[in-house]
Amino acid sequence: MMWRVPGVTYLLAALVVVFSIFGSGFASLPNLFTIGVQSSILLLLALPMTLIVMTEGLDLSMGAVLSLAGVVMAMALVDGRTLPLAFAAAVTVGLAFGAFNGLLIVALGIPPFVATLGTLGIAQGAALAATDGQSVVGIGDVLPALYASTWLGVPFSILVAAIAYVVFHLALYRTRLGSYVFAIGGNREALVLAGVRANFYHVAVYAVGGLMAGLAALLLTGRMNAGHPIAAIGMEFDAIAAVIIGGTSFERGNGWLPGTLLGVLAVGVLNNGLNVMAVSSSLQVAGVGLLVIAALLIDSFAGPNKARPTYARRTLSGPPSGSP
Amino acid sequence: MTVIYRLAVVLLLGAVLTSQSEVFLTVPNLLNVLRQASLAFLIASGLTLVILAAGLDLSVGANVGLSACIAATAIKSTGSIAAGITAGLACGSAIGIANGLMVTLLRLPPFIATYGMLWILHGISYWYMAGETIYGFPQGFRAIGSGYWVGIPVPVYLMAATLLAGGVFTRYTTYGHEIYTVGANAEAARLSGIPVRLRLNLVYTLSGAMAGLAAIVYLARLNSAEADIGEPLMLPAIAAVLVGGTSLFGGVGTLTGTLVGTIILTLVLNGMNLLAVNANWQPLVTGVIVLLAVWIDIVTRQRAETRS
């Protein structure tokens, strides 16, 4: 089941061909690096989002938590703390929100959509209140210099994203932990009967989501050279879009990490290509929406399982199957 | 029954605010609360029907934004208020129909279909307005949003009419009952002969139409249209539905509940305003209220189940 071709593969290929022909400068090495840099933050969110979607959940709070973590990091840097300390603070904030999400969903049985909608508001409100809605500027030179650095010719953000991908891929497909994630969405009952603390791992999946939002704050703050309370609002939707068009579905433990990578790249290529072709940025926004719908349509018409009853959103927001 | 609990919350909020602020319990402020609630309720009412049918419409905010821009252009270019209202309603309904078709014909998950629609509408609005602001509408049109009739704001009448029509529709018509059935169990509904796809199309269309109506009220109140005016409206609408006790799983909930949910959220925001709490705290407070409301719902439901 691991190697199949989701609709996004064809879309991505088509996009690359079209932009290579019509967009001068699209198919150049510097521009490919640009696409990678632009996609790196999204990938950091889309990786844990894949695991979360596999457990029949979703996390709407990621963009707001990322913004808050970025604000915390920037404020710490402005206060004169060192970068490792500021980074640790950002990751802690992310981890706390992620674990809180997990507890709301697993311990209290609140549907993921509602729980993370609530924490979205909490994180956004906290970020706005902490900054009074203003940008946090004057973060010093260390973080921007780190962000601008290249390692063996590879930009820092691409390196971080690549490492994150490899870690997630190995963890999901090569470790016991990964099997648990598949089982939480697929057959939780069996997992519990096998003596695994399914609830713990279920919370952990959300905690990892928050952790990665904290990690992404490093790249976001470095890129913007500032912290901003609504910098990443709505990015969780792009992450969900990348996961879905990559072939991971809300139906029971059905996840595909390489597809998520393709989905992230498709979003990045689309935005970059439209940019290169000088399409107005307002229509670029509509492009992501069309991309999602197109990828799902290709999947539903050309995919292996044509009869997908998808009227009801039940699986998306339902309580974790087999939970008390 | 759960509506009674929620009314108690409203009264409690009212009592607290009365004791804390001299302005709260005055006719102008209460009318202001009702006026604010009415706009939110118009959007949330359509959304309630969709969620009752176990669907979801994330595009309502963007729908309001685009419909308002279209209505604004129609009024400016024709000079006719009726043309503007027609254009706004038509735009909203067309978006609703498109959502319905994506869910029923193309079988896309509602979350994805309406989320894709959100971005598409967002993009179209920005492209269509090209950074312009359209402002200054005829007095007759502005009265829809900011006028009074017999001392009560005009939008409040629209809210009352929506509640009445929607209440009769959901409670006393076959269509209404079928929507609950589709939401509770789509397969069972299909087997018992309910045209599931048609009913789903109906709720998405109604949601779109209500967004179009809300767009007209919003436009008349703001007296100006910009590409992004619908953006902040989606989450409060979903919050109002959830705080009102409608279940995301479908089949459970009422429009009256959504009205009370809307009023609770509006009262809190009004209270924060009166007590001079920084507006930046609003998303946080809204988030906490949503979590509390849904959690209390779950706890009370579990209690009821263990008792029976």
Question: Could you walk me through the main structural features you see in this protein, from its secondary elements to its overall organization?
Answer:
The complex is a heterodimer of chains A (324) and B (308). Helices cover 71% and strands 1% of the residues of chain A. With 324 residues, chain A is an all-alpha fold. A two-stranded antiparallel ribbon of chain A has the order 1-2. In chain A, helix 7 (156-174) crosses helix 8. The longest helix of chain A has 27 residues, at 198-224. Chain A is globular. The two termini of chain A are 30 Å apart. Residues 305-324 of chain A have low confidence and may be disordered. Chain B is mainly α and 308 residues long. Chain B has helices at residues 2-20, 27-52, 60-78, 81-104, 110-129, 139-146, 154-172, 174-184, 186-191, 196-222, 234-243, 255-274, 282-307; strands spanning 134-135, 148-149, 152-153, 224-225. In chain B, helix 2 packs across helix 11 (234-243) and helix 4 runs antiparallel to helix 5 (110-129). In chain B, strand 2 (148-149) and strand 3 form a beta hairpin. In chain B, strands 1-4 form a two-stranded antiparallel sheet. A two-stranded antiparallel ribbon of chain B has the order 2-3. At the A-B interface, helix 5, helix 11, helix 13 and helix 14 of A face helix 4, helix 5, helix 10, helix 11 and helix 13 of B.
